[in-house]
Amino acid sequence: METKLTIRLKKKVIDRAKDYAQNHKISLSKLVESYLESVTEHQKEEIEITPLVESLSGVIHLKDDLDLKKDYSNYLTDKYK
Question: pLDDT (tens digit, 9 = 90+) per residue, 30-63?
Fold first, then answer.
């Protein structure tokens, strides 16, 4: 189903878009539709977790009292003595 859309744009932008569409032998409507389709379809994609990553999940168990910032700070202090 097609629906009409009214938008307000700067005249310079419209003129350049018309020239672009004409040079690429497509309608301005198709150009806008393609652009909107491309920017909205990628938002729906979710990152797929591969079986390898899934199998590695939970392999490392850290102590509850581990202070990563303190340990890293101590590491850097020792490294740059």
Answer: 999 999 988 887 665 677 888 888 888 887 888 8
Cα(25)–Cα(14) distance, rounded to whole angstroms?
A: 16
CB 21 within 8 A of CB 28: yes
Q: Report how far Cα 26 is from the mean position of its chain's Cα atoms.
A: 27
Give the angle 15-27-22 at the CA atoms, nearest 5°. 55
- Phi then psi for residue 19, to 5 deg, are -60, -45
- CA 7, distance to chain mean position in Å, is 26
What is the domain partition of the chain in residue ranges? Answer: 11-41
Q: Is 1 helix (H, G, I), strand (E, B) or coil?
A: coil
For residue 4, what pLDDT is reported? 92
